[in-house]
Amino acid sequence: MIRNVIGSILALAGATAAVWSPFRDWYDGRLGRDYRVQDLFTGITGNDGPLLTSVLLPLAFGALIALVGVLLRSRLLVALAGLVVLGFTVLWMVRQGQAAGSLAIGGDGPGLGTGAALAVGGGILLLVAAAVMRGRPRREELYEEGHAPQEEDWGPHGSDPSGPVPYRDSPYRLHPDDRYGREGPPTYPAPGQRDER
C-alpha cells in the first residue's frame, strides 16, 4: 500500500514535469511548444506551429497514460508513459543535434534548456514510479493474505432462485465423510406392541 502511494506521487510529479516542460526553454531560448511534432520525424526547422501540434501533444499523451496508470494501479501503464515521454524527448535531441551540428548542455553558447531537462526528468520519474509501485494484488496474494472472496455454498443441488440466501453446513447436507452413504443410517424393525390388558 505504501509503495503504491509513493509510486503514485512520483508518477504524478513526473507527469506534471512532462506537461510543464514545453512551456520552458528547450534549446537556445526556444520554447518546447514552438517545435512541431512533424519536425521530430522530418527534421527541426525554424517554423513555429500551433500549440496543439507541438511537442506538447506526445508529452501530454504520456502524462494521460500515467494518470490512467495511477488510477488503475498499473505498473505497466506508468512505465509505458515514461517510455513515451523519454522516447519523444530523445528523438527531439537527435533531431536538434542533427540541425545544430552538436548538442551542448549550458555553457556560453546555445545549449539545452530547462524544458528539455524537465522532460527527461519527468520520463525518468515515471520509470522510477513504475519500479516502486507494487501494482494490483494478484488472486494468489489475496488467498495468502486471507482476503479472498468466499464462494457462496448453495448446497449439493445448486442455487435456489426462490431462496433468500445460500445455506451453509446444513444438518441435512450429505457430507463426503458420512459413514452411512446416501441411504442414511440403517433402520431397525419397529418394536412389537405390548398387550396392556
> Any idea of the CATH class of the domain at 2-134?
Mainly Alpha
Query: Can you tell me the overall shape?
Result: rod-shaped
Low-pLDDT parts are none
Q: Give helix and strand order, one letter per element, not per position.
A: HEEHHHHH
Walk me through the structure.
By secondary structure, this protein is mainly α. It has a domain at 2-134: Butyryl-CoA Dehydrogenase, subunit A, domain 3 (Up-down Bundle), CATH 1.20.140. Helix content is 47%, strand content 3%. It has six helices and two strands. The chain has helices spanning 2-20, 39-42, 56-72, 75-100, 114-132, 139-145, and strands spanning 25-27, 30-31. Strands 1-2 form a two-stranded antiparallel ribbon. Helix 1 packs antiparallel against helix 5 (114-132) and helix 4 packs antiparallel against helix 5 (114-132). The longest helix has 26 residues, at 75-100. The radius of gyration is 33 Å and the shape is rod-shaped. The mean pLDDT is 79.
Which descriptors would you attach to this protein?
197 residues; 3% strand; 47% helix; single chain; 6 helices; Butyryl-CoA Dehydrogenase, subunit A, domain 3; two-stranded antiparallel sheet; 2 strands; mainly alpha; rod-shaped
Q: Briefly, what is this?
A:
By secondary structure, this protein is mainly α.
